[in-house]
Amino acid sequence: MSTQEHTAAAHVHRDDVGSRMGMWLFLFTELLLFGGLFLLYSVYRFTYADQFHIAAKELNTIVGAFNTAVLLTSSLTMALSIVAIQRNQKLLSIVLQMITILLALFFMVNKYFEWTAKFHHGIYPGSEELLSRQPGEILFFGLYYVMTGLHGLHVLVGMVLIAVMARMTRQGTITHNNYVRLENTGLYWHLVDIIWIFLFPLFYLIT
Amino acid sequence: MQEKDHKVSNSHNYSIYILVWLALMILTTVTVAIAGMDIGRFTVATALVIASVKAFLVLSIFMHLRNEGKTFIIFVIVALFFLGISFILLFSDYSLQAGL
């Protein structure tokens, strides 16, 4: 017991593998959260295939593709920020984290303009314009707002997390031999990216 | 543990991530281009296959699964398996009902 206490005092107890495993377990709950929505989407698309096609024509493929590129690039800068901290390039890591946040912000600004354009055309949940349409179109836009909205919420959470990580890196809490927090934030960020990888073709590319 | 650290240190270079990013961008362009063509019922299938390839790249390289232990891989496979079951069971039921 005393030797254990001695070693415990010598190095702070850490279990990076366990920490990452915990993060993965959390990501699986996220997978089921979005998985349920994808199930809902697939059933309604199966039932109202033609009406989904008509509704999807109103989404702007170029904006969607552009946002996909922005999010994929933000995943790259996130992954590179971890390599930078592993190589003890602290400043580079912080800069890459800041770029990730800026790209996420850019994604959200695009989303904002996309949503407000839709609102402007009277397409929002419960609007008269939308309710006058066919049931498949109402369901398509309902799912569109819920799924991209929940995804956008995750992007916002990710931005806050990365900002906290950038601060911790600056303060020296995250270092080249203790960066599991940054890795876990990266895992979360990449999951958000994967969800968008599926949202994009399912909403923007069914013409 | 020592071996693990060694394996992780192999990923300490930038180039692989940039290559994967390029592949992801190319796949995005391909999926947009294919959606523009009219290939009927295969449109959804190709879009989903390309999305799955992209997700696989992100999981294995960006999320470091290829450097993690077996336990992580089994975890992910089990999680995807159960999600797959929900889809298969739902559609085996739903497609039959719709056919009636």
Explain what the structure shows.
The complex is a heterodimer of chains A (207) and B (100). With 207 residues, chain A is an all-alpha fold. Chain A has a single domain (17-204), classed as Four Helix Bundle (Hemerythrin (Met), subunit A), CATH 1.20.120.80. Chain A has eight helices and no strands. Chain A has helices spanning 2-10, 16-47, 49-56, 61-86, 90-120, 128-131, 135-171, 180-204. In chain A, helix 2 crosses helix 3, helix 2 (16-47) packs parallel to helix 8 and helix 4 (61-86) packs antiparallel against helix 8. Chain B has helices spanning 2-9, 15-36, 42-62, 70-99. Chain B is built from four helices and no strands. With 100 residues, chain B is mostly helical. Helix content of chain B is 81%, strand content 0%. In chain B, helix 2 packs antiparallel against helix 3 (42-62). The interface between A and B is large, with 43 and 47 residues.
Q: What is the N-to-C succession of helices and strands of chain A?
A: HHHHHHHH
Distance between the termini of chain A: 68 Å
Greatest interface and its participating residue counts: A-B, 43 and 47 residues
Please give the oligomerization state of what you see: heterodimer
Please name the CATH architecture of chain A: Up-down Bundle
How many individual β-strands of chain A? 0
Q: Supply the number of helical segments of chain A.
A: 8
CATH superfamily of chain A: Cytochrome c oxidase, subunit III, four-helix bundle
CATH class of chain A: Mainly Alpha
Mean pLDDT of chain B: 85
Secondary structure tally, helices of chain B: 4
Element string of chain B (H = helix, E = strand): HHHH
